[in-house]
Amino acid sequence: MNISAHHWPSLFGLAFLSIVFLQSGFDKLLNYKKELGWIRQKFARSFLHDYVAILFFILSISEVISGLLSSAGFFQVMFTCGSKIALMGAWASTGTIIMLIFGQRITKDYTGAATLVPYFLACILTLYFLVVRAMGGDCHF
User: Fold this and answer.
1) Structural domain containing residue 54
2) What is the pTM of this model?
C-alpha cells in the first residue's frame, strides 16, 4: 500500500460520502414508515404528491448505493491503483444530492436546499480529486 499525497483528498472525500449516504439511506430504510409519513406531509401540496412513495424508495436506495459504492471505492483507492468504483460512487453521490436538492426546492424548503450545498460541493470536489489522481500518471480509470 503506497499512498501518496494526491490520494488523500480522494480518500477523505470517499470516506465522507460513505458515512453521509450509508447513514442517511439506512436510516430511511430502517424507519421507512415514519420517514415516508414525514415526506408525504412535505410534498402534500406539490405536483409530486401522488409519486412520493416510489420516489422516496428510489431516493433511499440511491443513498445506500451511493454509500456502498463510495465505501468500496475508498478501499479500491486505498489498496489498488484503480478508481472505477470510486468514481461511480462519487457520481452516484452527486446524482443523489441533486435529487435531494430538487425535492427541497419543489417543496419550497429553500433553507433545507441551502444546507445541502456543502454536500454537493463535497461530491464535486471528490470527483475532481479522483480525476486529478488518475491524471497523476500512476493510476488509471
Assistant:
1) 16-135
2) 0.89
Determine the average pLDDT of the residues in 3-30.
90
In a domain, 39, yes or no: yes
How many of the other CB atoms lie within 10 Å of CB of 31? Answer: 12
DSSP classification of residue 46 = S
Q: Distance (Å, rounded) from C-alpha 133 to C-alpha 141?
A: 10
As a three-state string, the secondary structure of 88-118 is HHHHHHHHHHHHHHHHHHHCCCHHHHHHCHH
Q: Give the number of residues written for the chain.
A: 141
**Using one digit for the tens of pLDDT, what is the confidence trace for 45-97?**
999 999 999 999 999 999 999 999 999 999 999 888 788 999 999 999 999 99
Give the C-alpha separation, 77 to 3, whole Å: 9
What's the alpha-carbon Rg for the chain, to the nearest Å?
17
Q: Is residue 2 part of a domain?
A: no
